Input
Amino acid sequence: MENIKKNNRIRKNILPVWGTSLLLALALIFAVVFTACADANGLHNQTAADVTFVFKNFGSISGDYTIPGNFNNWDNSKSMISMKDGNGSSAPVTISSANIEFTLIQTGDSGWLRPWFSAGVLEGNGVDRGTAGNPYQNFYIDGLDLNSGEITLVIDGSDVTATPFVQ
Output
């Protein structure tokens, strides 16, 4: 009889501890699962910055342009920037790589025409793969500080080699 009383005391003392511990563990799991934020690709704790591309002094080109690059799978189907007399700026683009390559072309151009590119007159700062049969890159920049949150990337075409720089 005494063992039964002893077991009942243990149950009365241990059950609330186990129940409380279980509730706290579940609360911790829910807090971690539902408060961690993922980027658009579902990656947690991905460092990224919002980059605004500013193009200036690109001759007299005007119209709707896009900025395909390795950060958007070279998609040239959506207008990202309106150029007027060689100048324009994009809305912020979320970039999750510190090293990017990109170009500036007319929206939806199936031939990747870059009317601003003219050998010896105005060229990108990266290896221009367009001269080797691959028209995808004209600009390359590395070392973007993705922890800064917002970056303005200026590409000035007033020099033969239009070099991007962070403003």
Notes: Confidence is low (pLDDT under 50) at residues 38-43. Helices lie at 2-35. Residues 122 and 159 are 7 Å apart (CA to CA).
